[in-house]
Hints:
The structure holds 2 protein chains of 2 kinds. Chain A is an alpha/beta fold.
Amino acid sequence: MNIVCAGINHRSATLDIREKFAIGSHELAETLDCIRQIDGLAGAVIVSTCNRVEYYTASICPLRVLDGLRGYLQKRTGGNEAVFYTHESPASVRHLFRVASGLDSMVIGETEILGQLKQAYAAAMECGSTTRHLNKLFQHAFRVAKQVRTETRITRGSTSVGSVAVDLAGKIFGDLSGLTVMILGAGDMSEKTARSLVSRGVRTVIVSNRTFERAAGLAREIGGMAVHFDHWPNAFDNVDILICSTSSPRPLITREIIEPLLARRNGRPVFIIDLAVPRDADPLLNELENVYLYDIDSLEQIVSQSLEVRRADVERCEKMIDHHVTDFVAWTRTHTDFLK
Amino acid sequence: MDRILITGATFCLLLSFGYTLFALGAGRFRPGWLNRVAILGGFVLLSLDLWNRGHTQGSCPINSLFEVLVFMSWSILLIYLVIGPAYHLSLLGAFTSPLVFLILLVAQLGPKGSTWHAQRDPWVALHASLSLIAYGAFALAAVAGLMYLVQNRQLKNRTAGTLLYNLPPISDLGIANARLLWLGFSLLTVGFIAGHISGMEVNTVKFAVSFLIWAAYGAVLLLRRLHRLPPRRTAEASLGIFCVAMLLLPAIQYLSSPK
Lengths: 340, 259
């Protein structure tokens, strides 16, 4: 029994091409039916996400199935099949295990793909297009992904400035619900970061901008309240997270301004996220008690550290996957009843 | 049988400590089931040992330096088992096991020392046992303080190390540190009152040192309450005072033992 995989991903094809091959949930059952007409094909699972479209099939005559798949794709997209990569066992098994573990993703170690694989497998099962071998393959892939995530650091850390900010807020305050965020300077990046925090339970958002209308507009969008730029220090007492990204040429938040404000906070910590260039907050603020200051460089440094940690563990993940591929291939050799 | 239970408990704590080091080396720093089982096992074995000793002596088993250290280890584990899950500070166990392991190791390998006469007066026994449990709470406060300082350093240095992601949030550590100090201080105060009621004779140096430690903890808590002492300083103070107390404890016991 052979597992055949054919597909395109973010490395082999641009978004323009991936769009043409993408299979929406409304056409999945029909596509699976078409694929199953291919001579020699016992079963199929189709994985279609924004970064990949892959067909996993079980067959005892892989060459015939690959020809059939090429023919189908040619018919579907009018001759655009050249970018498709193809794998047969054991490379196809290894490929699926790598995909499930996030090793083949655009951001190494991302975990969303596992959920997408589970959905694709469930949909194929619902359409009755899975076989014993495909069931075993996908269940094995889910187990591999779980083991890789648990026993290595492949999912460690955050890989975007927004998620790093959310993680750090969690490490300072614990539960984010009930916290208050102040945005100083309604820029695109500060808005994204604030939205990340709101999605994690932050209760109140205060927006302050030199142009009050812009502050009011953003406040309306994210369910916060606007404050006149000159009055932001008055609203600071209850603020836990301050995100600043103004275009001020000089630091706006200096020791002289912040120290009297900190004295009124009864020792509550404050997390300052300075996304502005040039910086809005004096770097020396980080030396103050209960003040945790991160500028854009330090946030990006954490992102690259996280990616570095993930990359360093790729080899370990590959070794784990190799063991599982050997196990699975051994199992297929002893279970040749491919039509079940 | 005399030391089998203690040796077993020491081994349990060593297992937990070893697992922590292994997990740290592997980049995983979550308290596993092995940590919890080992700590629980250590606690059960110490409880059995103390029960045996108490039953044999007919008094609270704190009649030698060895027994004092064992009782203190037991109280640290007891407070951890109560406090840890309550404040979601299960990682405290990873830091607690090496501390208790070291105390038990000192108890096992250190000089056995003379056995003091068993305390039959319930007030004296209450004074001694509450004071030791108080030191157990102070030990855990020191552990929480150490964790706070480590986390604070990581956050200030802006390094996303393994510990940053695995240590509890710094606010929770600050709260746990303060609450454990309050617990220890309250128990020590009640212990002092019990000692006063018993009318026992106290060595002047022992009294002075004990009072100074009590006053130092009281001052830290008062300043913290008045927001005059930030959490980092409180963490440093809890660690510092506990270390000083641990250095002085054997001296206090020596001075208070009958010559």
